Amino acid sequence: MPCSAVTLSLATIMAIVSTALLAIAFSTDNWLYTEVNRSHIKVSFSLFSICY
Protein backbone atom coordinates (compact mmCIF):
# COMPACT_ATOMS: atom_id res chain seq x y z
CA MET A 1 0.00 0.00 0.00
CA PRO A 2 2.44 2.71 -1.07
CA CYS A 3 -0.40 5.07 -1.97
CA SER A 4 -1.63 5.32 1.62
CA ALA A 5 1.91 6.03 2.84
CA VAL A 6 2.27 8.86 0.31
CA THR A 7 -1.11 10.27 1.27
CA LEU A 8 -0.25 10.14 4.96
CA SER A 9 3.10 11.82 4.32
CA LEU A 10 1.50 14.61 2.27
CA ALA A 11 -1.18 15.12 4.90
CA THR A 12 1.45 15.41 7.63
CA ILE A 13 3.49 17.91 5.64
CA MET A 14 0.41 19.98 4.80
CA ALA A 15 -0.67 19.98 8.45
CA ILE A 16 2.73 21.33 9.51
CA VAL A 17 2.69 23.97 6.77
CA SER A 18 -0.86 25.06 7.60
CA THR A 19 -0.03 25.30 11.31
CA ALA A 20 3.00 27.45 10.51
CA LEU A 21 0.96 29.73 8.24
CA LEU A 22 -1.74 30.05 10.88
CA ALA A 23 0.88 31.00 13.47
CA ILE A 24 2.30 33.64 11.11
CA ALA A 25 -1.17 35.03 10.44
CA PHE A 26 -1.97 35.42 14.14
CA SER A 27 1.45 36.83 15.02
CA THR A 28 1.28 39.64 12.46
CA ASP A 29 -1.05 42.56 12.97
CA ASN A 30 -1.99 43.14 9.33
CA TRP A 31 -5.70 42.43 9.73
CA LEU A 32 -8.20 44.65 7.94
CA TYR A 33 -11.43 45.92 9.46
CA THR A 34 -14.28 46.19 6.97
CA GLU A 35 -17.58 47.83 7.80
CA VAL A 36 -20.59 47.39 5.52
CA ASN A 37 -23.45 49.88 5.53
CA ARG A 38 -26.31 47.60 4.48
CA SER A 39 -28.98 50.28 4.52
CA HIS A 40 -27.00 52.38 2.03
CA ILE A 41 -26.58 49.36 -0.25
CA LYS A 42 -30.30 48.57 -0.10
CA VAL A 43 -31.21 52.15 -1.05
CA SER A 44 -28.69 52.44 -3.87
CA PHE A 45 -29.54 49.07 -5.44
CA SER A 46 -33.29 49.05 -4.99
CA LEU A 47 -35.59 47.85 -7.77
CA PHE A 48 -36.84 51.29 -8.80
CA SER A 49 -33.41 52.91 -8.93
CA ILE A 50 -32.24 50.23 -11.37
CA CYS A 51 -35.32 50.07 -13.60
CA TYR A 52 -36.16 53.79 -13.80
TrEMBL record:
Gene3D superfamilies reported in the protein's UniProt record: 1.20.140.150
Top-level taxon: Eukaryota
PANTHER family assigned: LD36024P (PTHR21215)
Name the record gives this protein: NADH dehydrogenase subunit 5
Organism of this sequence: Rhynocoris fuscipes
Lineage: Eukaryota, Metazoa, Ecdysozoa, Arthropoda, Hexapoda
